Amino acid sequence: MSKILLIKPRLFGLEWSSITQPMGLMYIGATLKRAGHEPKIHDCCSDYKNLNILRRTITDWKPDFIGISIIITELENTKNIMKIIREILLDIPVTFGGPWPSANPEEAINKFGADFVVIGEGELVFPELINAINKGLPTESIPETASMVNGRVKINHGRQLTEEELNSLPFPAWELLDHKLYAKTPSAAIVGCRPYMTIVTSRGCPYRCAYCHQTMGKTFRKRSTQSVLAEMEELRFNYGFKEFEITDDCFNLDRKRMYGILTGIRERLGDVKLHFPNGLRADMLEPEDMALFKQAGTVSARFAIETSSPRLQKMIHKNLNINKAVCAINASVKEGIYSTGFFMIGFPTETYKEACDTVDFAARSSLHHAIFHNPTPFPGTELAEIAKDILKNKNYIFDPQIMNYQASVLNISAMTDSELHRVFRRAIWRFNLNPKIILGLIIHHPKILSLPRYAFGTLMRILL
Prior knowledge:
The chain folds into 2 domains: 3-156, 3-Layer(aba) Sandwich (Rossmann fold), CATH 3.40.50; 180-463, Transcription Regulator spoIIAA. It is 39% helix and 16% strand. The chain is built from 18 helices and 15 strands. The longest helix is centred in the last third of the chain and has 16 residues, at 417-432. The strands form 3 sheets. Strands 2-1-3-4-5-6-7 form a 7-stranded mixed sheet, sandwiched between helices. A 6-stranded parallel sheet has the order 8-11-12-13-14-15. Strand 3 (65-69), helix 3 (75-88) and strand 4 (94-97) form a beta-alpha-beta unit. By secondary structure, the protein is an alpha/beta fold. The termini are far apart.
């Protein structure tokens, strides 16, 4: 048996950000326990500035292995974490996983000092890697890993989990988390602080949006309806959770399964609240679907529109049917579901008129809330390859201080910097500061007491 510390770094400026439970680490923690190991999860949310709690944990617990799950905005803190690890336990094997290392395994090893990288899904790979190290077996050929071999980074691409393997995984190791930490921190749904639990019912997305990562791959794999409902029942009746955030890439891709899960929740779980912070494809929803979402307890839903331009929809490979999306949004609002729209302003070749049309589309819609972001060309995405040909300084794409989706300063559009700023000001005035929309927000927001924090966060984004 080995002691394994699983670390979740957090980004600087976290006080104005939202977080969610580290689902990947909870799943890996569960498979490590099944293999006979002793895992511990440390979320740096509570000490991301000085990392004193992490330092004491490493010093006192003395783990045999360390795993770190990383997104690009957490790279700066990952450097500090690696420095602490190497100060205290110089030779401990450190494995990176998550979206950024999966897309950049060579940099993870050469620049950040990881001994191994698990590429993609790690539930089965990480225990296999630990077993090989413990038994002195070769590690350089384990599928879905990268490591230094003869002075060069060797990358072993593997395969994704099958649906059978996905359904055979143990439920996430919820017991490894301090749930009070997440109950007092804004979540992905941005509907106030309260006890909740994240649920992942499927993995992968078949769409090939240019701006999106491919950590879970482009093959849609779903858990069975019974597995999802059994997990939610355990959380509801054994752990006491009444709110759930479903964070699939595309929850409604399989409509029959979607209906089965929602009907099961309505009939078996009782008075629960559901949130869909990112996983609904709007043009695959029929207006009548939203009635069942409401009956199952859905309180909030987010719809990723990105752009109202048919030309740009085609260019970014999203190909959203705008008219069908509008019908789904209208039905969601009619059912009393707090509905938010995601929009991106500043795609490559996007003109000032196209950007203004997207803002005007959002302002005319029935949405309660809209979020406008500048597209961020994260490494490993098609958008990053396009941006390299546009940006004078190509190193921007690899700068974690710039690759921040909450406050990106890159202009990869056909607009001048001045025009891009004018579009975002237009968005602020037409939506965020529209008295009619603000009144609707106050009336329909699921947790009215959280609005002062929301207002302050909105002000910060406006200033940035």
